[in-house]
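Sequence of Serine hydrolase domain-containing protein (Sporosarcina siberiensis).
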Amino acid sequence: MYGDSKTKIQKIFEKSTKNKHIYESVLLIENYSGDFSYQLGYGGKNTDTPFLMASITKLFTSTCILILREQGKLSLDDKIAKYFEEDTLSSLHIYKGQEYSKDLTLSHLLFHTSGLPDAIEEGSNKARRRAIYKDRQISIDETIMKTKQLKPHFAPDIGKRAHYANINFDLLRKIIEIVTDSTLEDVYKQFIFDPLGLKNTYLPIEEDDFVPNVYYKDTSFYLPNSIRSISASGGCISTARELMIFIKAFFGGRLFNKTVFHELEMDNKLQIAMSPIHYGAGYMKISLGGLVTLFMGKGELLGHLGSTGSFAFYYPASDLFFVGDVNQMAKPALPVRLVMRLAMSIKS
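Predicted 3D structure, token representation.
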């Protein structure tokens, strides 16, 4: 099984870590049973080194939504107006003179089909610089206020369009907390951490909770307050070893009935800046058979990337899971290229 895959993996990993922007990295690849397992580290990082999952956290939030749906405690067809005060939602989504704020559903948030903009990524250059260089905690109310100052990209559910925006999952956090009458960290613990035995995966809450530094170009930043502000959309910390346990459970049916992937199989292309990524029910899809690979690959990668260089993907065509981190915010294409190259190089 998997032939001389380890040699190929090592060559691709070493080529990737020669990039001048990568100072540390970790990679763990396994099949579902664990019969095949291979790990590599760089810059002192290994499979038990904590790293910021960034937007892979969205898979945890998606898990909570799918479990609550399975329990009958919410529906993806629920209007978000059911969970928020009218003043909070008012003017959140106005497109071409028509207000859609009260029409938004949980499905729109989970699939990124709301059309809502991202207050950080799409704000001014000053806003983006402040997000990186100034560590401050931002409340959900402030995020909503900033979002209201920007124009939505489209009306909800129009033309099979998706636009990736953290606000969608920030809103899902509040809905999870309202439905469960608990904090998001407690829900993660109840639904994910405890059932999977994850001891080193957590949302940093207290002042003394360890938060790893993240790189932007050649500078290492410590951003505990910013990270606490985005708990549902990007604030979780884990290790490659534990993230592997989670990604197998997510797609393997250990956390919720995996028939949901057939029930909610719709996916839409994200904005051009995120090509070739599509978005499904709370997770990303990357085709390996398209133009970006010159039609040389097959199948698709399912999982999530993080803006800090983290990645967690399942490749059904070869029954393989890829988990790791390159810890670089300035080059979002690095982890995408790495995982695509790895998937295309390994033969089961």
